[in-house]
């Protein structure tokens, strides 16, 4: 592999996608951020600039780093143009297996033969996504955490046909991004979602039962167990719809009642209370 940082295409400019593009560009990679939705790329760049400016105010980012990050970032609405010279493609679209399989089939045709294709899925079977391509040995999971520019973990998910070269390339890219990577087997929920969802759903049940307020349930985990953020506030940041989809998937796959979504979660999603992105979830956001 070249000494130069690999060129990265990020497909999907939503919350996770623009965060991945941010850290990739900041760590010296040339990044093409792709999204076909009208206004999505401009919104993503605005958010990346806002996050960089917040880092500037805290003294964690320099003006030079901000300028270099933005210079490394290219907004590319055309998928073919984004993928055609990429060494690594990271997909960050909705948690829908059919959608991801369709996209990976396209990426398999558009990206160079030697490119690694990674999915940011937090719970879907990576092997099934890989089987939509002619290069399953070059497909794996690269699961980042929100907010990507702050959270240090990357969960690298390998399925039965993932090759050593692809795994090592992704581990090296994660290190270059300043992340700590863990390697987990392709199984429902991997490591982080399987653990995190159980905690989040139990917190919701406690709220539903009136055990304590959302604020005090979160405070219990923050101060009692040294979690940086409580499970209900974290759910608001992740998105209640995302958390519901993951819980339903794990409940189906593992057939375990611990993953059955509580009514409070289903009702809030039905009401459009999806967390910070809709200004209301378990908390009210300004």
Could you explain the architecture of this structure?
The protein is an alpha/beta fold and 286 residues long. It has 2 domains: 8-185, NAD(P)-binding Rossmann-like Domain (Rossmann fold, 3-Layer(aba) Sandwich), CATH 3.40.50.720; 193-277, Orthogonal Bundle (N-(1-d-carboxylethyl)-l-norvaline Dehydrogenase, domain 2). The protein is 47% helix and 13% strand. It has 12 helices and 8 strands. The protein has helices at residues 15-26, 40-57, 63-71, 79-83, 97-110, 126-130, 164-176, 192-208, 214-224, 231-238, 240-254, 263-270, and strands at 8-11, 31-34, 73-75, 88-91, 116-119, 139-143, 153-158, 180-185. It has an 8-stranded mixed sheet, with helices on both faces. The longest helix has 18 residues, at 40-57. The protein is globular and about 55 Å long.
Throw out a few tags for this protein.
Rossmann fold; 286 residues; 47% helix; alpha/beta; N-(1-d-carboxylethyl)-l-norvaline Dehydrogenase, domain 2; eight-stranded mixed β-sheet
In brief, what are we looking at here?
With 286 residues, the protein is α/β, with parallel strands linked by helices.
